Automatic annotation (TrEMBL):
Pathway per the UniProt entry: Cell wall biogenesis; cell wall polysaccharide biosynthesis
Protein name: Glycosyltransferase
Keyword vocabulary terms for this entry: Glycosyltransferase, Transferase
EC number: 2.4.-.-
Family: Belongs to the glycosyltransferase 2 family.
The organism of origin for this protein: Speluncibacter jeojiensis
Record domain Galactofuranosyltransferase GlfT2 N-terminal: where: 48-160
Enzyme type, top EC level: transferase
Taxonomic lineage from the root: Bacteria, Bacillati, Actinomycetota, Actinomycetes, Mycobacteriales
Amino acid sequence: MDRSTVQQLPETTAIPVEPGRSLVQRTLFAGPASWVSVDLYSKVNAGVARRRRNELRLDAGAIVHTNSYFGRFEASYWQRWTTATTVRVQVTVQGDAEGAVLVRASDIGSHERTVTVAHVEGGGTVTLDAPIDKFLDGGAMWLEFRAVDGTLTFTDVRWTVAEDDTDRPVTEHRPTAIAICTFNRADDCANTVASLAADPQVLEIIDAVYVTDQGTDAVETRELFTETAAKLGDKLHYLRQPNLGGAGGFSRGMFEVTGRESHANILLMDDDVRVEPETVLRLTALANHATSPILVGAQMLYLYNPDYLLVSAERCNIDTLHAGLPADEWCLQDESVIEEVQERRIDAQYNAWWSCLVPAEVVREIGLPMPYFFQWDDIEYGLRARERGFPTVTMPGAAVWHADFYWKDGDDFGHYFSIRNGLITSSLRSGFDIKALSGDLRRRVGHALVGMQYGFAYTTLEAIEAFLEGPDALADGGQAALARIRQERSRFPETVKHGVAEIPNGAPTRRAVGRLKPGKEDQVLAKRVVQQATGRIERGPVVVPYEDSFWWHVSLFDNAYVTDASQTGVRVRRRDPELAKELGKRAVRVFRRFHAEAPAVRDAFRAAQPQLTSRENWARLYGV
């Protein structure tokens, strides 16, 4: 798929809402573009149906339901987090035939039931009320449409709840400001902003769009952005600043929003996502009706496999610096959500900032993000918010399409920031198990050395030493660290991607046989070290597919052409015993220092966090 292609949204109109009620969801029957499967929105049970974005036309005998990813009303999340006790569904019907609209529901065990039915005789408006009960641990509601003896058309389907009477203002008084961070993705960013502006109903609840451009290829030079700017008018704020990474770009939007009392919600959004505008409406609605402030995140669908879900909700292990883990065993992960739906309510630990809404009062209470530049900024912020009583909810049926992580090779400069910032995050939280952290990082370095990823091992050690520098390592927001680590990594040949033509003719392909048994990691690592020291490895060039590039497999060779995750080239790994020995000795020194100095560094970061996350510090970095 050409990601630079402009996403053309179908025309929609703003759906009127009854006084005293808040629009919390629309039922849409098809996606925002032709590359999105219509079955993510609605499914045909019987007969002939024509499904358009905001319109469903049924021939006689046809049945369509919306028990689908975007078609469900996530009742479990509404019962758990909001004051709403009843949801009202209103549908505009055209035609002179008989039919029906049913509200259907499921429970935690995927058992289905009918909640209420409205029989249709000709055109008009159908209204159904359904209690939001019996869903605390799981389950959702959806609609079923039937045409009996003729053609019926259903349009303008809206789900509303009564405006609550809590101290927190409701939707009309709590608009959402979009904060987009971009760096040299001008076409993608222009497309994202245009998609948001293309939906009138969503545009009504957006009172500002902040685009923080940190690149050299300016978004403002794109014709589409100029056209969209005219549509957004004074809602659009285009900001230029030095490259401070994702943390600096997103924090700038938060900085601007919380400096203006009129804003209530800040929706952080990547520049390169494909947007489902309905997601903005659903995130805003849940946040605004929550009994107390919560962070509400969207799920991530794969851009190249648009019906596949990354994971239902995420957690991290800060003692081993592993993030992106399923929040619990009931999560859907790397699965198509056309056939599978998430019935259980799953509690997230944090939500990545491909799309995550943060109420302004949360920012005012806990501060701005850490000046990490890149990696772990969203995780640290979610953990910090949770500790202060502001949990994160990752909402099914609210999603954006983002480039599949599978296509990104982890051996790049981002690994430096991932390790450094992960260590800082771990130090800021309770625990900070130095022994566990050290053990895991030692293994990573060992795996890299036997797998001929010397640049990766070097990057890991550099990141650990950067952490040991303490808060001063974050003084410039990461600009110097980025330039330095990129330059230093270039010394290692295997960090460079080569063209496919460089693969030697006749080099055999070596696939991994079997899998590493749980608990045998250290034993296999020791075995590989001995094998390499005694020369018991395969000589000559071999080809290793990316799917087989496990450290315990690549370490069996002395020259491997490993497919890059992007599938556009190869990384050439060659055994260098002297370099491995040099890096091994350095690792001993680094980990000895880590054990000795980490407790003091932990205390320094905890003491410095209020200053590092302050408006004054970020204003200095922005140059404001």
